Amino acid sequence: MNKIIKPINTEKATKIEEVKRRAYEIKREEKTRKILEKKPIEKLNNRYVFKVTSDANKIEIKNEIEKIYDVKVIKVNTLITTKKIKSRYTKRGQITGVKPSYKKAYVTLAEGYKIDIYNN
Q: Which helix (H) or strand (E) segment is 54 a member of?
């Protein structure tokens, strides 16, 4: 089974949803020409990001997360990152390489559940 490779714990991974939601609210308010009121941004403490195998589907990811971490999963969103070509210049000329693509899963947990990534 083993579809989960590793958890990804970065600020970008955990805060990206908050930024998108806030940007959408600003655009929507500007279109309707209403006065923009500051709305509280939800804290996404119950959302985690995992690197998974490319053949894993949402149901398999949900079942495995619930089994490994003993939590209740509400929603799973997946995306496949594109491969990136990296190049740099050295004394011997230009070196090019490719960072491979991989699949990420954004897992939303029910309220009251947490995953302690550092101790598991």
A: none
